[in-house]
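Long-time lurker. I teach an intro course on protein structure, and each term I like to show students one example going from raw sequence to a predicted 3D structure in token notation. This year I'd like something fresh instead of my usual example. Would anyone be willing to generate the tokens for the chain below so I can use it in lecture? Attribution to the forum is fine with me.
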Amino acid sequence: MKLNLNLKKKIQRFCLVLICLVVLIFQSNIPNLKALTMDNYQNEIVIEELRLKVPSELKAVWLTAEKEIWEPWLSSQDGFLGRQLFWDKEKEEALILVNWKSKKLWKSIPISEVNIVQQKFEDNVRAALNVGKNPFELIYEGELDKQR
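-- Reply from a regular --
Happy to contribute to a lecture. Here you go:
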């Protein structure tokens, strides 16, 4: 009887260990764990992606400020390859795609410098609209890697 009880406990422990191993094995199959880090692409073309809320009645002001403030500054940056502006009428959202020669060049731009240009952009918009705050809310910012 005692031998049978010991065998039963050993089987229960074995099953518990087996379940834990199976769970751990399947956990390691999560796609995020297998994703390559962006550091592997430091010297390859990268696209900065920005999404803004741009109401239809303010679209012209947004485009003007983009061309007057961001365009000249971006053109002076090392590694800048160009950009595209899109506007979704239904969502009233802007999509800005900025092409960079490499992530390393893009990320070497000091954030303090970017903040100065952003402040100029917001000042331009506020003055044009005679409002107290920037109406173009940043919805999303990210990056895309060019696929081979």
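Some talking points for your students: Helices lie at 2-27, 31-34, 59-75, 103-107, 111-129. The mean pLDDT is 85.
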